[in-house]
Batch of 2 targets.
Target 1
Amino acid sequence: MHEIRWNPLVKKWIIVAAHRATRPWRPDEKSREFTCPFCPGAPELKNLDEWDVVVLPNKYPALIPEPQPVEKEEMNILDKKEARGVTEVIVETPEHEGDLCTLTLDHAKRVVETYRNEVDKLAKERFIEYVAVFRNKGKEIGVSLTHPHSQIYALPFIPPRIMAEINAIEEYKKIHGSCMICDIVKYEIESKKRIIYSNEEFIALIPYYAMWPFEIHVYPIKHVKTIRDLNDHQLTSLADVLRVVTATYNSLLERDAPYIMAFHDHPVKGNYEYHFHVEFYQPYRDKEKLKYAAGIEWGFWVFTYDGVPEQRAVELREACRKAVKTLNNVLGGCM
Ligand SMILES: [Zn+2]
Ligand SMILES: [Zn+2]
Ligand SMILES: [Zn+2]
C-alpha cells in the first residue's frame, strides 16, 4: 500500500506506507550476520567498479513511481491519492564510518553535486512537484544505518513547510519589493551577532527565529532560487560550509554528533519567490541533554527556545573555530 491521505484539519498530506513498518531498525553492526548494504562488495553495489558517491533506490520506499490505484473513502473530505514518487539513498563514501566533515572538500563537493544532479533528473518526472533532500544522522534521530548517507524524497506535492516559506517570502516581496532572505542575510552580515561561519558564497548562522537550541541555517549570500542554479564555485562553497557546520556540531558535543540537515529548495514545477537554503536541527541543548519536541511543540506547534540564540551563537562560534582548525590540519582545509 502506497497512498497519501489528506488531513483536512491541518490541510496536510500524510504518506502512508504499510510495508515500512517491517523495516529493520538499527541492525546490530557488531553481530556476525551483519553486512552493510552500502559498503563496497554489498549486493546492491556489486556491479560498480570504482565509486566515491553512489545513488541507490531506497529499499523501503515510502513512495513509488507506479503505485496501485487507491480506493476512496465515501466521505469526500477524507481524501486520498496514490503515493506516486521516488525515494533514493545517496551513499556518500565507500568508508563505513564518517560524516560530511570527514570527507575531503573535493569529495564533499561531489556529494553536493550529486544532490543537484538528482534534483535536476527528478524534476523531469511529470508526477513530481518537489524534491526533498535531507540527511539524518545518529541514533537519537532514529537512523538505522551508520554508513554515511543522505536521502531524497521526490514528492507529488509541495511540503507545507516550504509552502509556508514561499507564502511569507512572496508577501514580503509585494510589500518591500525585495527578497526577505537576501535582506536578512545583509542584516546578519552587518550585525555579526549570530554568524557562525562564512566563505565567499555562503553564511552559516543561528537564526534570530531559531526553534531548536543549536539550529543553524546556511544561506547563499547572493540571491539563488534553487540548488539547480548553483555554479561550480558555489557548489564547492556549499560543500565547504556543510563540512564546517557538521564538524562544528562534533566539536560542540565533543563526540560524533547527531543532527538533521534539510535542503529547502524551490519546487521543481511552477515559479515562486524563493531563496534556496539549508537548515540544520540539533537535538541536543547541551552536551548531555536532549531537547524534546513534547506537549507544547507537538500538541500545539508552539516552540519554546531554551536559552538565547545570541548566546548560543557565541558557543557555536567557539566550536566552529576549533572545527576549522581540525579540518585545516587533517583534511586539507577549508575555503
Ligand atoms: Zn558500510
Ligand atoms: Zn534572496
Ligand atoms: Zn527554510
Note: The radius of gyration is 20 Å.
Target 2
Amino acid sequence: MLTQEENERLTRVGPGTPMGALMRRYWQPVAAASEMSERWTKSVRLLGESLVLFKDRSGRFGLIEEACPHRRASFLYGIPQADGIRCPYHGWQFDGTGKCLDQPNEPADSTFKDRVKIAGYPVEERGGLLWAYMGPLPAPNVPPLAGIDSPHAIRLLGSAVIPCNWLQIMENSVDAVHTEWLHGHLFEFVLEHKNFKTKFTRKHLKTAFDEFPYGIIKRRVIEGHTEEGDDWKIGHPVVFPTTLLVGNASEEACHMRYQFRVPMDDTHTLHLWYHVIVPPAELTIPAHLAGTVHTYDVPYTDERGGYFLDSIHAQDIMAWITQGPIADRSLEALGSTDRGVTVYRNMLRRELKRIENGEDPMNVFRGAEPETMELPLEFERTQGDLSPDGARGEGFAITNLRAMFSRHEGRFCPLGPEIVDVFVQHRQREPAGVA
Ligand code: FES
Ligand SMILES: [Fe+2]
C-alpha cells in the first residue's frame, strides 16, 4: 500500500514532477522511421507535452511543441522547409531545436524572432525507430538494446494507446502469477464459452525477482517443471525503466519481443510491441520483409467496446485499464506474490534519489563506443504461451511465431502468416540444421 502522496510521486510524469524528471533522462521511442516516409508530421503526446514530430526537406527529424507561439495554430499542418518547418497560419519558421528562424511578415530589420523560442527535442533513429529525448543536454546514447542494430532481421512495430497510467503496466511485468489467472483460468473460461474446452493452466510453485545491471529478471517454476528449466535458470528481463523483453532463441530464429511503455501523460500510455526476428545466417529474408519496420495498429476491443479476451494482449490491457486511470495504491493489499512490485517500486525510488543527487540514473549510456545491453533470452519457455502447437512437431521458434501471430497482439499484423511461412519453408528445406 502507498500513501496518496507516494502514489502521486511514483506515477505522475508531467513537467516539473519528480517521476517526469526521471523519465526525461531516457530516450523514448515515438514512431517507426518508416511511418515518416509517406508523411511529414506526426502528432506526439509525450510526458505530458503535446508535440509534433516532423521531417524537414533535408531529411532531418525534429520534435517541437505543437502550438505555434504566434497565435497557437498547430505545426501538425506545417510546411516543411530545407531547415525546419513553417507554421501553416502565418509562416513563422522553426528548426528542430525550437529556434525561430523567420517571421516573413515582420519588418526586415526586426529582432523579434530572436526573442521567440519553443520547446524542441533531439530525435535519433536507431533500429528503424525514432527516439526522442526530453532531458537535460548533452543527451546520452539511444539505449543499445540487444539486437536493435541487427542488419539482417524482420522488424515489426505494433502500437496501441492505453488509457491508463504507465506504472500499472510496468507493475504487471513484475507480477509473475497473473499469467496463471489472466492468461490461464480466465482464458480457459473464455474458451469454454466458445465451446472449446481445454485445460492448460499450471500453478506457480516458485517465483523470484532478481536485480541485474539493467533492471529485474523475473523467474518462475511452474507445476511439472524444475529449477533446471529456462523459466527459472534464465528468466526474462524488465529493462529499467519501461521496457519488457519476452523473447526466445533457437537454431531457427532469435526473436526479441520488446514491449515499450511510453508515458504519454499521467493517464495515457503508448504501448509499442517491437519485434526483431533474426533468422539463422543461411536464411535470406525476402527483400520486402527486411530493411524496414512494418507497423500495425493493435486493437483490443470490438466495436461495442468488449475486450478481445481470447488474446493475451487484450487480457493484460483489460486488467491495466480496469485498475483505473491511475490505480489508487492507497487502497491496495499486496500479498506474498507481489514481491516483484515492491522490488520495482524500490528501484524507482532509488533512481529518483540518484537524479536528485545530480547523478545519472541507471541505463544511461554515454560512452563513445556504446556497450550493448546483453539481455537474457530463454531457449524454451513453459509459461505465458499455450503450447498446443508443440504437437505439430515444429521447432520451438516456429511454434512461438505461430502463437505470437494468433494469440498475442501479432494477430493484427497482416504479415504474420507470410513470416511464419518463411521459417516453415526454410525448415522443410534444411531440416538437418534444426533441433
Ligand atoms: S499562428 Fe503560427 S505563424 Fe501565426
Ligand atoms: Fe500478462
Note: The chain has two domains: 28-132, 154-433.
